[in-house]
Design goal:
Shape: globular
Bound molecules: adenosine-5'-diphosphate, magnesium ion
Distance between the termini: 25 Å
Number of strands: 20
Helix content: 40-55%
């Protein structure tokens, strides 16, 4: 292996390459565009495209693609080769500024939630120069946004970029009020810790549920799973270690800051955390990371499962979205400072987040909703569906004393009035961390833990950026007109703590008591995605996104439709897969075992007429009954699916899924799992949890 510094970013058209390969004028113009969002002149685009192509071809690329993130949650690409025919029968390689900047694509097969009328099938992709172009599979990939011809966003990146702008604008207003005229930009930074499972490829292909649904629909709990905590931070098995090493190299080549990896709590579960970067790039990188995990696993005879809950009864996978705000000079605005005024600024930003999370619990909840994540949230391993924040005991006490105007007396009596005293640095000791909180302040950043492992991080960050921008805007409106800045600031901070402290909870979020307590506090508990989705289009939320130019009303409604549609399709596929596995695999397997038992009894009887066949009789009776019950559940499920196809409207369909289909699927599963426990291993038709979780 060549050295890390040599390979790092070797497949990325990054600042180093730009500086080396672009004429100085062009480099400067492009840099301006990247930093301030200024639009790029056509001639400059041509020069950049030429340099990009030359660089890519030297690296072995033959094609280019606009790489975008449609509302499927995956990435999309359509490859065009660089060839351009010549009169002499040969070709030259070409790539123009026009091709770099804008692409046309048939949008009709991507979800649009009704935004794109069918007669207008075209969509276009537009270069996002703030995220670097890169080479993947001998193709130059140009990160782009994806819109309809009328300018509606059809992707996850457009609103993310809009929300970055909104946040930047409002945060700068606040900084200016504190006399900061140096900072040119405020950027949200994100580090997304990715959890995943790895299983053996051969076993994977023997499970239609894993292949079609990404999760197991059946499977009895093994005698041992994660109770011994043997796996967490455990030694890596050689196959896993080899996979991780290669994954790191691939990610480093793509300029992704792959940093920390370890075994997670469940057997066969792992985590990879990158070093944080600005939101836009972090989002691209997370998509690439998920893609690379799958590709590299496959090369090692393995399969990477990104589903939120591949196995019932063991921990599911999430994606902790660490989020903070950074100035153009790299100052983290959630880091308490060294002077009273710095701390007042810190507190103002902090209470903005507290207010935002409280007022917009519902859209935060929507932003992490999916059929997959429903299995995970509230399943005693992941935060519940109730949104709350933990601040750690120390900071919570400080806020309390600010609110009451009393002295904070941890070590010494200090006056905690805002702007009067220096705040203590908060312990970043991991033992002190509340790991059950959906939204935890961890010293200098917030960790949003409810995000699902397979989800794009774009949506939760759009929501975070927007709701915080809204609160900062509200504060700035007041402060800009204040006669006495300091007393107004004090008032805002105290009042916000008082009005929104119900969202702060430092206790155990997994406990039953919290569910009751949260209800008393009037916090929302949107248990399922289907409960959550309609909140997206509530008037207050539509107004919010419209006001900051993130989503138009039509865009909001389209996203609501897509959420529901995706949900319905996902469960429909799961139910069909379940029926298939029951009919084609489980029923016949159990029957053949019954047949063996009957034959064994009859043989026994013919040779030893006096022998009892109690064992065979009991087992045959039990299994026959259960197999019949399973068959009946399967028929019931088929009936529910038929009803589903007759229901109009995605919301009504989703309700039918929650009320009828999912409960029936759960019942079918539990019958099958109980049979799995008493059918001979050789008869069971697919690999068990024992095989999948422990045989790497
Ligand atoms: P842990 O949470 O396990 O203690 P760290 O605090 O080092 O680990 O970081 C976890 C993740 O948070 C990493 O991906 C890291 O890059 C990211 N992170 C750290 N600081 C910030 C920040 N200011 N903004 C966004 N993400 C951050
Ligand atoms: Mg963490």
């Amino acid at each position: 292996m060549s050295s890390i510094t040599d390979i790092f970013g070797s497949l990325v058209f990054d600042d180093r390459v730009m500086r080396e390969r672009l004429p100085e004028e062009t480099y400067k113009a492009l840099k301006k565009t990247r930093e301030n969002g200024k639009s790029l002149d056509k001639n400059i685009a041509n020069v950049v495209a030429g340099a990009m192509k030359e660089w890519a071809v030297e690296k072995g690329a033959t094609h280019f693609t606009h790489w975008f993130q449609p509302l499927t949650g995956y990435t999309a690409e359509k490859h065009d080769s660089f060839i351009c025919p010549q009169a002499d029968g040969g070709v030259i390689l070409e790539f123009s500024g026009k091709e770099l900047v804008k692409g046309e694509s048939d949008a009709s097969s991507f979800p649009s939630g009704g935004l794109r009328a069918t007669f207008e099938a075209r969509g276009y992709t537009a270069w996002d120069p703030t995220s670097n172009a890169f080479i993947k599979d001998r193709t130059l990939c140009i990160p782009t946004v994806f819109c309809s011809y009328s300018g509606d966003a059809l992707d996850k990146k457009t609103p993310l970029m809009r929300s970055n702008e909104a946040l930047n604008k409002q945060a700068l207003r606040i900084l200016r009020l504190f006399g900061d005229d140096k900072t040119t930009r405020v950027i949200a930074t994100v580090g997304a810790e990715q959890e995943y499972f790895i299983v053996d490829k051969e076993l994977y292909y023997k499970r239609p549920d894993l292949m079609f649904c990404g999760r197991t629909l059946f499977g009895a709990k093994p005698p041992k799973s994660q109770e011994m905590v043997a796996h967490y931070y455990g030694t890596l098995k050689p196959r896993i270690s080899a996979f991780m090493k290669e994954l790191d190299e691939e990610l480093w080549k793509l300029g992704i800051f792959a940093k920390t990896e370890h075994n997670e709590a469940a057997p066969a579960q792992h985590e990879l955390a990158p070093i944080f970067t600005h939101t836009n790039l972090a989002t691209d990188h997370n998509q690439l990371m998920m893609e690379m995990m799958k590709i590299v696993a496959d090369r090692h005879g393995l399969k990477c499962l990104l589903h939120e809950k591949p196995f019932a009864g063991v921990n599911g996978s999430g994606k902790h979205n660490n989020w903070a705000l950074s100035t153009s000079d790299g100052v983290n605005l959630f880091e308490p400072g060294d002077s009273p005024i710095e701390n007042a600024k810190f507190l103002l930003f902090l209470v903005a987040v507290i207010k935002a999370v409280d007022e917009y619990q519902d859209i935060l909840r929507v932003s992490v909703s999916s059929a997959g994540n429903d299995h995970r949230l509230g399943a005693n391993e992941a935060p519940p569906a109730i949104m709350s924040m933990s601040l750690g005991d120390e900071l919570a006490e400080i806020l309390e004393s600010i609110e009451c105007g009393t002295a904070y007396c941890k070590k010494e009596k200090v006056d905690m009035r805002v702007g009067v005293h220096v705040l203590p640095r908060f312990a970043r000791d991991t033992t002190d961390r509340n790991r059950t909180s959906p939204f935890a302040f961890t010293g200098n950043k917030f960790e949003f833990r409810s995000v699902g492992s397979s989800a794009s991080i774009a949506t939760p960050n759009v929501v975070l950026n927007t709701i915080v921008a809204k609160e900062l805007c509200e504060f700035a409106d007041i402060l800009e007109n204040a006669d006495d800045f300091t007393s107004c600031l004090n008032e805002i901070i105290c009042k916000t703590i008082k009005d929104h402290k119900r969202i702060i909870f430092n206790g155990n979020n997994y406990s039953e008591e919290w569910v009751k307590e949260a209800e008393k506090r009037g916090l929302l508990n949107l248990r399922t995605s289907v409960d959550a989705f309609p909140h997206l289009i509530k008037e207050k939320n539509v107004e919010l996104f419209k006001k900051f130019g993130i989503f138009s009303e039509a865009e909001m409604h389209s996203r609501y439709e897509i959420y529901l549609d995706t949900y319905v399709k996902t469960i429909n596929i799961e139910a069909l897969t379940m029926i298939d596995m029951i009919k084609k695999q489980i029923l016949p397997a159990v029957n053949s075992y019954i047949n063996e038992l009957v034959q064994s009894a009859s043989l026994k009887n013919s040779i030893f007429p006096s022998a009892t066949c109690e064992l065979e009789k009991e087992l045959v009776t039990e299994l026959s009954d259960k197999n019949l019950a399973l068959y009946r559940k399967c028929r019931l499920l088929e009936g529910h699916l038929e009803d589903l196809s007759k229901i109009n409207g995605a919301k009504a369909q989703a309700d039918h899924i929650c009320n009828a289909i999912l409960p029936t699927m759960n019942e079918a599963r539990s019958i099958s799992d109980s049979m799995e426990k008493c059918v001979a291993q050789k008869n069971w038709p697919f690999p068990t949890y024992n095989d999948l979780l422990f045989r790497i």
